[in-house]
Amino acid sequence: MTQINIHEAKTHLSLLVEKVAGGEPFIIAKAGKPMAKVVPYVTAEKKAKRVGFLSGQIEVPEDFDSMGQDEISSMFGGSN
After folding, report:
1. Among 44, 43, 1, 41, CA closest to 17
2. In what order do the strands lie in the sheet with 2-5?
3. What is the CATH number of the domain that holds 13?
């Protein structure tokens, strides 16, 4: 990785930013001592919804809509 002194970085900032955007990170040094690492900014990509990703892996019971109906009715004082 390229190391550039702070004075040179200030002088050529526009060029250096273009290089970083193109995938060439660099280190800014002061008196030969590394001070900062400049890397491209990467945005988090929005993940697409995965509709049907469990298709064929789970099974929904036939009575799914009425499962626990008696217990629920008794909890709320109703009757079937």
Report:
1. 41
2. 2-5, 26-30, 33-38
3. 3.40.1620.10
